[in-house]
Amino acid sequence: MTNLEALKQFVIDEVEKNKNELLQLCSSLIQIPSENPPGDSTEISQFIADYLKESNVELDWHESADKMYNLLASQGAGDGKELVYCGHTDVVPAGDLSKWDFNPFSGEIKDGWMLGRGASDMKAGLAGLIFVFGLFKRLNIELPGKLTLAIVPDEETGGEYGVPWLLERKLVTGDGALIAEPSSPLNPTIGQKGSYWFELEVFGEPGHGSLSPLAGNNAITDAIKAIEKIQGLWELDIHIPKEIQPLIEVSKRYMEEVEKDRIKYQPVLEKITVNVGTINGGTKSNVIPESCKVQVDCRLPFGVTHAQVSDYLKQELDSLNIRYSIRLFGFKSEANYTPAENPVCRAIVDNISAITGKEAYGVMQWASSDARHFRDHNIPVLQYGPAYLPSIHGYNEKVQVEDIVRCAKVYAAAAIDFLHNN
Known about the structure:
By secondary structure, this protein is of the alpha/beta class. It has two domains: about 5-190 and about 335-420, Zn peptidases (Aminopeptidase); about 195-235 and about 270-335, 2-Layer Sandwich (Alpha-Beta Plaits), CATH 3.30.70. It has helices spanning about 5-15, 20-30, 40-55, 120-140, 165-170, 220-230, 245-255, 305-320, 345-355, 370-375, 400-420, and strands at about 60-65, 70-75, 80-90, 110, 115, 145-150, 175-180, 190, 195-205, 275-280, 290-300, 325-335, 335, 365, 380-385, 400. The strands form four sheets. Strands 1-2-6-3-7-15 form a six-stranded mixed β-sheet. Strands 10-11-9-12 form a four-stranded antiparallel β-sheet. The longest helix has 21 residues, at about 120-140.
């Protein structure tokens, strides 16, 4: 056994020895409601700062918006590579409490499950990063490079005041990043589709409803015609770049072998998905509507750009001879990925395989996350975190305790590998 292998085994053993502390930390994070909206991270940020202070870790606080706090800390020699541990403190609202089988802010452990809002997305993963960072400090683990902990308050509503805020101000840099977002146990996400959210407003001319369709111009019926054209985006034949095809194929394999209930969704990896999410128009039934607004969420595969989608929509909607406007909002990104052979991907994937004794490989995500911001700043990144995927953003969110512990072991071992290997 080499010195590096011995060091990795030592920290893995220490995670196992101290796993009750890790689980208590996770429970405590869940017990602090940090729903976004409203996005107030004061209480949870202070708790994390107090916890890490016990390991002699001092955090720098950066308030990016009212009561939204980004927390930063670093350790290591500083002369070498830098790895960023990244996680968000905010969770989606718990919703109708009567539909939960347990208190969403209990943080209870029952029958091997950690229960509560954020258990899977992503307080279990966040707890793992914080715990390992503090553990390294307590154990005086010598790191040849720099390990940075970046805890952000704003991911669930688009993330404007979290990761991109830090990166744009160069408060965070790095040679690689690990985000503890939910994933399957053996399959980190190393790529994701792009996002194209837009609002279409169609304009008509008001008039008395008893004279329609001879009088006025109905914005709602014109919007229906427009929606039919928009849905044509799904039918477009997208040419996936040759270098991306292996990632698409391994992601299809994942859907066949791991999340078997998702086999029927394989086409989304190569198609523009179209979800007409909201429609709002008219004033009352006997008035011809003069306006109708439709909000649409499209996810873009590799091989198509925002500009191409905009050109397609303009051409198709112009052909209808209607009056309209389009406004982009929300998530905006092109499809992006980190190559599987990149050192940060290898560090995570190899250590998953070593710790579980099973084959691990990176796959593509059909949604979006903070990973795109790191890639925009040329920082290779992947996502790996404990999760029970069917429960994310739903009622009765939970995660298996053994997944929390396993991921923390991977975080520790991967940091040592990444920082020691040039």
